Amino acid sequence: MKDLSILIGGKAGFGIDKGSSMIASLLSRLGYRIYIYRDYPSLIRGGHTFTIIRASENKVAAHSDKVDVLLALNQDAINLHKARLKENALVIYDSDSVKSEGTGIALGKILKEENATEIARNTAIIGAFCKAVGIEWKILEDTVKKYIPKEADINLKVALRAYNEAKPALKIVALKQPLLPFFTGNESASLGLVKAGLDTYISYPMTPTSPMLHFLAAQAERFGIKVIHPESEISVMLMATGAAYCGEKVAVGSSGGGFCLMTEGLSFSAMAELPVVIVLGQRPGPSTGLPTYSCQTELHFALHAGQGEFARFMVAPGDAEECYYWAQVALNMSGKYQLPSIILTDKTLAEGTFSFDMNLAKPLPVQDPVLWDRKTPYKRYLNTDSGISPLALVPDKDATIKANSYEHDESGITTEDAALTKTMQDKRLRKGVHLAKELEEYETVKVYGNANSDTVILCWGSNKGVSVEVASKMGLKVVQPIVLEPFPLNRFKETLKGVKKLIAVENNATGQLASLINGLGLKVDAKILKYDGRPFSLEELEELLKGALR
């Protein structure tokens, strides 16, 4: 068996998330490529939480509806997911609280006899899983010590009890291929920002980007960065512009509701030409919507957020390696062109876990801004051919460095003069023109699948993984625009030569990328839209595509 899916489910507070990471680690050590899909309600305790861990010989970035193994920590996990079971699937359950066919392990009894806490039941059922699929005890022992170092002894006791009670059922074969680490999209984007020279990360917690705040705060000393948690998203954005004014490379993170509060600061960063990178993790709305679920509904919002007209850089990576790479590009471009950059993610990408292959993430040099040459009196907003004004950084005794939200002249002095207003607006917009030209050297649009197919799946962001895998099976072509502003229209048109049918696959109700494409004079022939907060599964997208092709 070289491609399998394991579902572990229970109520919030049962340690499902950590349990899924431990299972992924076990399988990764056997040479498998990993993808984890997480599904959880916005509750601290209660409700139903589950994850699907997919392990494959090949790189994967999508989940399957059908599972080979079900690890049920409560009755809901059986009742809600029994329809997912493949023929001859392995079911391991807590026989003290669950009624089912399969392998029952008295987890409650084990916890009570070992004086272990409730959360240790996830370790116990993983012990039974390892025995059932032929994973050696030593590998599990090492994994428990890695993930639960402070309570390793008691967790190893309950895991060993369950391990000894279970019986072999499936055989997972170790693969002879290099081991890869695995990261979430949030972690990959964080590492990319750090690689590009991030100085400060500022954020108010908001799902699905909260884990970036936690991850970077935990690693701040190691990375040599500052991590700040202010009282609101308004404060986040204003602190970020202040840090940028002082010459720091700065990024912030939020979701749609928080980004709403940042939009005035976003416009200020554009007018004052202060570079800030914004990681915008999408989730369903309007308003609070589904706080812990996923969507792709902020494309147009991010494209047009903020009053006035100004250049911005916006990118939508599709997997862990792209999060890492394009986060670097975003920080570089934001700093070089002194404008805001937006990295669009969503819950599926941000909190999904992927095996990470550094060979797929091209190395990028750290770019430093153009600095004042000190040969002429300093003008913060010097009108140049590129629109990029050389920088002086505070404190500099030889320069007066202004940051003005009002329209201003080259020195930063407020103006309402008509001719000067036009001159300075043209200067700022020229940065977008030069940015678009530079991006021609980057792979801003990617093509996968059957290059000769005249039917194309158009996708963006987290739909890359499921689209590419289904297209490979169906013999179709996939086109994935990664940079969405400035949109790489010429390159995108090149990818569509000879195409007879263009099908947009999106997680929103209105087809936002399709609308953008249609507005650029191109025709999207069909739309496959899913907007219930859940991503497409492999089986679901395949059936929907078959329907669209009839």
Bulk shape: globular
Number of strands: 20
Q: What is the helical fraction, as a range of percent?
A: 25-40%
Task: Work out the strand percent.
Answer: 15-25%
- Which regions contain 5 or more consecutive residues with pLDDT less than 50? none
CATH topology of the largest domain: Rossmann fold
- CATH architect. name of the largest domain: 3-Layer(aba) Sandwich
Instruction: State the CATH superfamily name of the largest domain.
Output: Thiamin diphosphate (ThDP)-binding fold, Pyr/PP domains
Mean pLDDT: 96
* Class based on secondary structure composition and strand pairing: alpha/beta
Sheet with most strands: 8 strands, mixed
- N- and C-termini, Cα separation: 34 Å
The largest beta-sheet arranges its strands as 6-5-4-1-3-2-14-7
- Number of helices, counting only DSSP H or I runs of 4 residues or more: 19
Overall tally of structural domains: 4
CATH C-level label of the largest domain: Alpha Beta
C-alpha-based Rg, rounded: 25 Å
